């Protein structure tokens, strides 16, 4: 099938050097390899909830694993619509409309809300829906350790969308709501409890009582830090990447900003850290 050939090709590329936005990225020993997917449900798509969630006609609710589309409030008082949320929903709806979709799994199949956590392929051409949403600039890569996907391929799609300023990567969009942030602690502190992408130079790295700290300034009590627990650190070790060797590396990390000894991101999945040249 078309998707199998594409995944095999991306697995080969994952061991090579390729260019992302003018910077080389080595996926060797870093990104998880393209997984072997287990075929799941097949059928017609029904109601689309937002840019990364829809129902199958049989009633199964599906979450597009590995990406995050702009959120919609969906009548929740504590959630505000994100810029381009409606456009992302419309794009997903158009992509799935009238198509037979196939669900594939690698890792956890259901979350606590009983949503299917799937890689979704649509139509006779087996279009990988996640990749298309990212390519159109209507979703960001957002991986979790309990599901797997071809992360290297998704990151290439995101880099292309950024280069071409598509969708959420448009300059000036809602005061750069989705902008890649610098690791400056004072501005970052304004984004506590929000999902952000931060890019900068790691100035020091240390293991302390089972936790790894990647620091972006001279004062770890105030500067931005990536915090990696022992379970996530094992993911890097399994890929033969020693976190302490990242001192001086130019990296891009994504996750939710927390505030403890300065702003930080608790990194629970190795695929959320890009090591840039």
What does it look like?
This protein has about 280 residues and is α+β, with helices and mostly antiparallel strands. The protein has 2 domains: about 1-165, Beta Barrel (OB fold (Dihydrolipoamide Acetyltransferase, E2P)); about 180-275, OB fold (Dihydrolipoamide Acetyltransferase, E2P) (Beta Barrel). It is built from 6 helices and 18 strands. It has helices at about 1-15, 85-95, 130-135, 150-165, 185-190, 230-240, and strands at about 15-20, 25, 40-50, 55, 60-65, 65-70, 100-105, 115-120, 125-130, 140, 180, 195-200, 205-210, 210-215, 225-230, 250-260, 265, 275. Strands 11, 12, 13, 14, 15, 16, 17 and 18 form an 8-stranded mixed beta sheet that branches. A 5-stranded mixed β-barrel has the order 3-4-5-8-7. Helix 3 runs parallel beside helix 4 (about 150-165). The longest helix is centred in the middle third of the chain and has 13 residues, at about 150-165.
